[in-house]
Amino acid sequence: MKLCTRALGEAVALVGFDFLLECWQDDPALQIVIKKLLAKFPQWGIACVDGAMVKWDE
């Protein structure tokens, strides 16, 4: 499972914020998964604030 999480983390880092935001808006079930990913990979600079996904530098 650890390898799978690492591979997923690297894949999401490559596709970027726009892809995550699109998934976030499309499916409420994915929001739970994305929240967990954002907690595991703070180096992405993306956070969930008041139910919205934001970049830290904006």
How would you sum up this structure, described in words?
The chain is α+β, with helices and mostly antiparallel strands and 58 residues long. It is built from 3 helices and 2 strands; from the N terminus they run αααββ. Helix 2 (17-26) runs antiparallel to helix 3 (28-40). It is globular. The mean pLDDT is 79.
Main attributes of the structure:
64% helix, alpha+beta, globular, 3 helices, 58 residues, single chain
Summarize the structure.
By secondary structure, the protein is of the alpha+beta class.
SSE succession: HHHEE
Instruction: Give, in spatial order, the strands making up the sheet with the most strands.
Output: 1-2
The overall pLDDT average reads: 79
Could you tell me how far the N terminus lies from the C terminus, measured between alpha carbons in angstroms? 33 Å
Gyration radius, in Å: 11 Å
Supply the number of helical segments: 3
User: How helical, in percent, are the residues?
Assistant: 55-70%
Largest sheet: 2 strands, antiparallel
Query: What is the tally of beta strands?
Result: 2
Question: Unreliable runs, pLDDT <50, ≥5 residues?
Answer: none
- The chain-level structural class is alpha+beta
Q: Give the DSSP E fraction (strand runs of 2 or more residues).
A: 5-15%
Shape: globular
